UniProtKB/TrEMBL annotation:
<dbReference type="InterPro" id="IPR001670">
    <property type="entry name" value="ADH_Fe/GldA"/>
</dbReference>
<feature type="domain" description="Alcohol dehydrogenase iron-type/glycerol dehydrogenase GldA">
    <location>
        <begin position="18"/>
        <end position="193"/>
    </location>
</feature>
<protein>
    <submittedName>
        <fullName>Maleylacetate reductase</fullName>
    </submittedName>
</protein>
<dbReference type="GO" id="GO:0005739">
    <property type="term" value="C:mitochondrion"/>
</dbReference>
<dbReference type="GO" id="GO:0004022">
    <property type="term" value="F:alcohol dehydrogenase (NAD+) activity"/>
</dbReference>
<dbReference type="InterPro" id="IPR056798">
    <property type="entry name" value="ADH_Fe_C"/>
</dbReference>
<dbReference type="Pfam" id="PF00465">
    <property type="entry name" value="Fe-ADH"/>
</dbReference>
<keyword id="KW-0560">Oxidoreductase</keyword>
<dbReference type="GO" id="GO:0046872">
    <property type="term" value="F:metal ion binding"/>
</dbReference>
<dbReference type="InterPro" id="IPR018211">
    <property type="entry name" value="ADH_Fe_CS"/>
</dbReference>
<feature type="domain" description="Fe-containing alcohol dehydrogenase-like C-terminal">
    <location>
        <begin position="283"/>
        <end position="400"/>
    </location>
</feature>
<dbReference type="Pfam" id="PF25137">
    <property type="entry name" value="ADH_Fe_C"/>
</dbReference>
<dbReference type="InterPro" id="IPR039697">
    <property type="entry name" value="Alcohol_dehydrogenase_Fe"/>
</dbReference>
Length: 402
């Protein structure tokens, strides 16, 4: 059912809406008309631009607008792509950016519209890096200005980064840095199942595991209170069912079941990030290590969660036993399994979806790589979370993931 909501139920998100079961071809022109935005930059997935009619149909619908287009953004939002988008915004006085793609696209566009308001025209990577507190791996909010350019995000994955006012980009040294401002969230998020349907199934399901990771690490956090735990216990089953319906629909050729699974998963992915966005519950080691596994070894966002969440649960089992019992119960109930450990239940689900569950499956096996990942994790934006292990503990998790 189509539904328009404020992205988050707090004053900082007034005027920042989202539409579930949206129609991008109708909702984008409507928003542009409302904003009186005539100069528009499309930042779009290469596959959508070349292998489907999604972008072509939108360009035809926007034929009366002054359209600029960037096709393709690298994995984990490289600085070069962010700079390219920001320069286009500055040079052509772009009034609205439309991102259609995965989390790398939305992150690149969120940072670009923030930096286009913050840095002078023609800025480079050095100026970007100068904004970052290197100990925390975070720029803002003091060093970053609120964007003045509108941003519409049409996600094609479930990583759910579009709901966050913070976004991450990867510098030339392969380190993921984070940029944020309280008003840095998109102006409008459009959850269109028909657009998401074009995403290859392995990418969709992997991004869904990223959302599962959001739920699980939030529940396992020492800062998770009763209200947040209740929210998670309602939302995680919805997400798991959506992913299973999508997988079953894909395998059985049932389009209605597949689209229903997409719509449920999109709602579930938003719910998965609420504990962090509303209650400020920090993510844990799976996310912190995953940020750097992605930037160092080029492993896709969701796949990092597939690989790292089970060993993280094993490593933290003694400290998070009660939370892991809840996770285990939810997985067993939704999936009809009888696993005895949360880590085993998560890994079994990953394998059921046909996704990688070991570092060896993504060609990350060298000790040198693991040490670099561990060292960079210590300076990740999540490193201030005292619940994260030291370097030796990070290496233990990585070793279990081999």
């Amino acid at each position: 059912m189509r539904e328009r909501i404020q992205q988050l139920d707090n004053p900082g998100r007034q005027g920042h809406d989202a539409i579930f079961e949206a129609s991008y071809l109708d909702d984008i022109p409507t928003a542009l008309t409302e904003w009186k935005a005539s100069r528009v930059l499309l930042v779009v997935s290469t596959s959508l631009d070349t292998k489907s009619s999604v972008i072509r149909d939108l360009e035809e619908r926007l034929s009366d607008y002054q359209i600029y287009k960037k096709v393709g953004v690298g994995s984990h939002s490289p600085y070069n792509d962010i700079i390219d988008i920001a320069h286009t915004v500055q040079d052509h006085d772009i009034q609205a950016v439309v991102s259609i793609g995965s989390g790398s696209y939305s992150d690149a566009c969120k940072i670009a519209v923030m930096l286009s308001a913050t840095l002078p025209a023609g800025f480079g990577a050095d100026e970007m890096e100068a904004l970052v507190d290197q100990e925390r791996g975070l720029a803002g909010p003091e060093t970053v200005k609120a964007p003045v350019t509108k941003l519409i995000c049409v996600p094609t994955s479930l990583s759910a980064g579009e709901w966050n006012a913070i976004a991450s980009g990867t510098n030339a040294q392969g380190k993921k840095q984070h940029f944020g401002h309280p008003e840095g969230a998109p102006s409008l998020i459009l959850m269109d199942p028909q657009v998401a349907r074009t995403t290859p199934s392995h990418l969709w399901l992997a991004s869904g595991m990223r959302a599962v990771d959001h739920f699980v690490e939030s529940l396992c956090s020492a800062e998770c209170d009763e209200e947040a735990a209740t929210h998670i216990q309602k939302g995680l089953p919805l997400l798991l069912r959506g992913l299973k319906e999508y997988h079953d629909g894909q395998e059985g050729g049932n389009e209605d079941e597949l689209l229903k699974g997409i719509a449920e998963s999109q709602r579930g992915s938003r719910d998965a990030l609420i504990p962090f966005l509303k209650w400020k519950i920090p993510m844990g080691a799976s996310h912190a290590i995953g940020h750097q596994l992605g930037s160092v070894a080029g492993v896709q966002h969701g796949v990092t969660s597939c690989i790292l969440l089970p060993p993280t649960l094993r490593y933290t089992r003694d400290k998070t036993k009660a939370a892991q019992e809840i996770v285990l119960s939810i997985f067993n109930e939704v999936l009809g399994t009888q696993e005895r450990e949360a880590a085993d239940a998560v890994r079994r689900f990953v394998q059921l979806l046909g996704l990688p569950s070991r570092l060896s499956e993504v060609d990350v096996t060298q000790d040198e790589q693991l040490h670099k990942i561990a060292e960079l994790t210590l300076t990740d934006a999540l490193a201030h979370n005292k619940a994260l292990p030291d370097k030796e503990g990070i290496l233990q998790i990585l070793d279990m993931a081999r």
